[in-house]
Amino acid sequence: GNSVTQMEGPVTLSEEAFLTINCTYTATGYPSLFWYVQYPGEGLQLLLKATKADDKGSNKGFEATYRKETTSFHLEKGSVQVSDSAVYFCALTYNNNDMRFGAGTRLTVKP
Amino acid sequence: NAGVTQTPKFRVLKTGQSMTLLCAQDMNHEYMYWYRQDPGMGLRLIHYSVGEGTTAKGEVPDGYNVSRLKKQNFLLGLESAAPSQTSVYFCASRWAFQANTEAFFGQGTRLTVV
């Protein structure tokens, strides 16, 4: 079946450091890929998405590229801020209603 | 624009008690979902619905029931609560007919079963 695997956390970085959170997926066809972010005490909200191979999603300085050959959708940011501290979820949707999430990666950014 | 609203936000139950969590969305979305979030386990799908009057089981449906009598509402019921159901519950909704549409989430319900 379809599934998402993302790197385990927690991840702790200093402000202005480079961030990578790895995400790989298993799917029988061509899913759409998403990154969601969850700030403390809140629900998940969309960070970025990509709907076909080689698409790059970007938002708030975060980027991720849909790599079909490696079935990956790694999240990157060149310079993290304290306000980026949150839990990040990789997700896929396939055949409309099937929506799967990774286990989430907690990021803490220290000043 | 309220989006997805969950009630209640917090609840403490005794083992064996029952309760219903309400999810309401005002975006006219066809698809609605209930997830539970546990430490280290991410989001696990309990039940989902692809339209009014329809429901389907997800990964962890045991001990829960759902109903979708109106398009805007998706109810999650616990008939006889157990400590293993202590969790944070999230409802989500999505626009149908396209796999590339994002989900909108409620703020969660923190449930403790003692």
Largest interface: A-B, 25 and 26 residues
Percentage of residues assigned to helices of chain B: under 10%
Order of helices and strands of chain B: EEEEEEEEEEE
Using only C-alpha atoms, the radius of gyration of chain B works out to: 13 Å
Q: Helix count of chain A, per DSSP? A: 0
Report the uncertain regions of chain A: none
First-last Cα distance of chain A: 41 Å
In percent, how much strand structure appears in the residues of chain A? Answer: over 45%
Return residue spans of chain B where pLDDT drops below 50 for at least 5 consecutive residues: none
Query: Which value, in Å, is the CA radius of gyration of chain A?
Result: 13 Å
H/E series of chain A: EEEEEEEEEEEE
Q: What is the 3D form of chain A?
A: globular
Broad structural category of chain A: mainly beta
How big a fraction of the residues of chain B is strand?
over 45%
Largest sheet of chain A: 6 strands, mixed
User: Averaged pLDDT of chain A, please?
Assistant: 93
Labels describing this entry:
A: 111 residues, mainly beta, 4-stranded antiparallel beta sheet, B: 114 residues
